[in-house]
Design a protein that fits this description.
The structure holds two protein chains of two kinds. By secondary structure, chain A is α/β, with parallel strands linked by helices. Helix content of chain A is 39%, strand content 23%. Chain A contains 14 helices and 17 strands. In chain A, helix 2 links the parallel strand 4 and strand 5. In chain A, helix 3 packs across helix 5 and helix 6 packs parallel to helix 8. The longest helix of chain A is centred in the middle third of the chain and has 17 residues. Chain A starts with 5 loop residues before the first strand and ends in a 7-residue tail after the last helix. The mean pLDDT of chain A is 96. By secondary structure, chain B is α+β, with helices and mostly antiparallel strands. Chain B is built from 14 helices and 33 strands. The chains are: A alpha/beta, B alpha+beta. Chains A and B meet through helix 8, strand 12, helix 11 and helix 14 of A and helix 13 of B. The structure holds guanosine-5'-triphosphate, iron/sulfur cluster and magnesium ion. The site of iron/sulfur cluster (SF4) has 11 residues of chain A, from loops.
Chain lengths: 371, 603
Amino acid sequence: MSEPVAAYLHIPFCDRLCPYCDFAVVTGRGSDTDRYIDAVVSEILADRPAAPLRTVFIGGGTPSSIPASSIERLLGALSRQHGLADPEVTLESNPEHLAQDLVTSLASVGVNRLSMGAQSFDPVVLRALGRRHRPEDIDVGVAAARAAGMASVSLDLIFGHPAETDASWEATLERAIGLDVDHVSTYALTVERGTALSRSIAEGAPAPDDDVQADRYEVAVDRLGRAGFEHYEVSNHGRPGHRCDYNTEVWAGRPYLAYGLGAHGFRDGTRFRNVRAFDAYVTRVESGGSPRQGVDPIDPWEQEVDRFMIGLRIRDGVELGEAGPAFLDTDSGRRLVLRGILEVDGAMARVVDPLLTDAVAREVVGLSPPR
Amino acid sequence: MPTPTSRIRNFSIIAHIDHGKSTLADRLLERTGAVTEREMREQLLDSMDLERERGITIKAQAVRLTHRAADGQDYVLNLIDTPGHVDFSYEVSRSLAACEGAILLVDAAQGVQAQTLANAYLAIEAGLEIIPVLNKIDLPAADPDARAAEIVSILGGRPEDVLRVSAKTGAGIDELLERIVAEVPAPGGDPDAPLRALVFDSYFDAYRGVVCSIRVFDGVLCSGDVAHFMATAGTHEADEIGVLVPRPKQVSELGPGESGYLITGVKEIDRIRVGDTITHPRRRAETPLAGYAEPKPMVFSGLFPSDGDDFERLREALEKLRLNDASLVWEPETSRALGFGFRVGFLGLLHMEIVRERLEREYDLDLVATAPSVAYRVTTTAGEVREVRSPQDLPPVDERTSLQEPYVKAMVLVPSEFTGTIMELLQQRRGEMDGMHYLTEDRVELTYHVPLAEIVFDFFDTLKSRTRGFASFDYEPADYRESDLVKVDVLLAGDPVDAFSTITHRDKAYEYGRAMAQKLRELIPRQLFDIAIQAAIGSRIIARETVKAQRKDVTAKCYGGDITRKKKLLAKQKEGKKRMKMVGSVEVPQEAFVAALRVDDAS
Ligand SMILES: Nc1nc2c(ncn2[C@@H]2O[C@H](COP(=O)(O)OP(=O)(O)OP(=O)(O)O)[C@@H](O)[C@H]2O)c(=O)[nH]1
Ligand code: SF4
Ligand SMILES: [Mg+2]
């Protein structure tokens, strides 16, 4: 088994909880930043050294809400423990934080790919999503990133909120394209259990509509494609040379490290996840214990099935490998090919309409090994 | 020494559903000291789990009490608590055959209801002495004077002779015990005559095999005797005889007028027939006692295991259930849509629901039930008369010369202000009025001749809602009549789905087809392609709907690397889909198969 060359770092701090969010997040704990960073650094330094890292993803929460010096410490720890091989370093950010000096400092400590939670350029939609920034903040952030010399700038967009209209979504896409960013992720608004959004829907607020979301999705693929973006994963579009390396590693089914509360990783054939609660995470690490909440050893066949299943999200297709033929030999596999939902070309399989990816993935989970 | 007949009283408690029979039995058990205070629980004789959960009696239950009467003598009282629901009315008939008297219990708030009348008529026909009793006089809504007048109008007699009790508070119970001793005739019977004992019930005990409930009419049955069953011609040794007090208590003999149980070592319930007469093989009785007809199933539904591998388990489970429920009948059925299963006959929808629930719960089966149907009578062009219990089996129009459907005699009891409503409803249900009879000034009894298929499925709910709950209803089988019936088929993606076919009256076929197609459109989830739903009579399409193809089936994010969670979610969704039936290329949820049952809710 190869050693991971990718690492995920989780920064859980947010100014406020967005109504649709079900990530591992804490609010109002800014004063605990140093304690948390100490803990993550300790977690990194206690880990078994892997190969020099080629990609690091700092996600959250809102990593742009903590000082660049904290990011520097984290990257330093990764460098000491595993070594860094000129990695892509992505940092997720909220537009309202992106003053020029912060972005410049982030660049100077090694961040070279800035991902922005832009979500929309329509103030009505931003408000409906419970976001605090204004559309202009996104323009400012992108300019700051460019000025700081970020190698890649990416925007996250959320579509399909009932407050959004076709026109508003198209305008958002045009603004994003107009900003000449390198990468755009477009996410359909998803109602997760236990969120404020799901509660308000239960109380009668309108829910996102699948057909509307399908239309908007297709509009996004079309507009971004025409603007020169490659649609390389279900929700991701990049200009040539700007695909996200970190995600590419994960989607290829290769191992990756993960640190911080609620983080998930995959190493030595084992999937693991850390405790999600802030205090539990910090105290466990401080007392020299393991922050793991679960470890899940995956046998080689299941790893192969996972690789195939996750790879279905890749628009270039996924290598058939061993799982592919086994799947194509099942009733459901045959039926999906027959109906033209799954396409096989040489050694690759591809979901023809990305909107139906889960219809295929669902049939793949639990696939038995060939006899 | 058997108890002298002069000191035996045999009676049933009969009433409309929920009028308090089982609760009254509790009070009688308590007052006669049959159970201690510690052993007492509500509706003690409802011993099946399902009876307790639903709060209704399903199976009649006999118990022997000892009561010291005002005359200072000890009397043996054999009490039978009966079910009130129409599906189980055959249990009432059986129970009455073992008695000389009946307590006709009437809720003092609700008054006389349809099953009160039906059961009263059964008791009168059986020649029983009836003690009319008003129950629940503790209720604020009780109106005993008016209710007593209603009872007098059916039974005759004087209003002051209608006893007033509360099975809840115990008021009037002592008086009732005295009335039982005074008014229920002592059983006749000659202890020296050849033995004649009636098998009035049977049940299966996992350890003891078949246990018969018997009532001795003539002669004496002793433990160890050889018992000859006259109808089945079986001869079995009486391993144990006893009485239920309510615990089983062994006795050495049962004489005329006495009731009890008999265990013979027979393990197969089919070898004992309820209604049979037991005698001694050496000294046979000349004529058997009047038995009774086996209950006839009224509705038939296909039961299919969701998992085809469970077919044998379903068969075994049905066989086991039959040990305690001789009314259950079935035959194998094959459906293109649902695979191998059974066409099962039931006494009514409640019976069907109960059987299904027991199969699923006690035998851990996951079942798909098809819409129930009645049994039609078909004459083929070859002159053969056939019973058709499933729409699938209906011969095509050109292969039959006659198609008849079962009719029932239905009785509806309502406050007279609803007379018009009932007439309208029964007209829609193709009923013909037989008679109208004022029970009192403001309560009317309407009798109708109506197709069973029109009243057995959703009629009761409709009746209740149209009369604000005031109507009650009872029916009994009548005859078969020729009707203009058609078979409505349902096609999914162009293929007929046998399990959705229905036989209905031509005038209702169009509406039925439309409602069914709409219902299925709501129930069938969107899939990867458009699904056409059509209803047809022969080759003529009468309704059409489409389930549009699903366009989006993908999660936006891969859960920030939480692949385990993603897999679990997909696996769970896949499991959910497994609960659907693949019909051709279409996934159909199991609820869809009973949808037809509720299609005409609105009518
Ligand atoms: N207030 C009051 N409630 C009563 C009385 N007798 C029975 N009940 C209630 O009426 C309901 C029905 O009583 P059951 O004894 O189960 O009636 P049942 O006639 O045996 O019913 P089935 O066996 O289903 O026909 C229960 O909730 C009893 O508690 C009474 O005298 N007064
Ligand atoms: S900023 Fe992002 S991580 Fe924080 S609450 Fe909002 S959606 Fe969740
Ligand atoms: Mg009862």
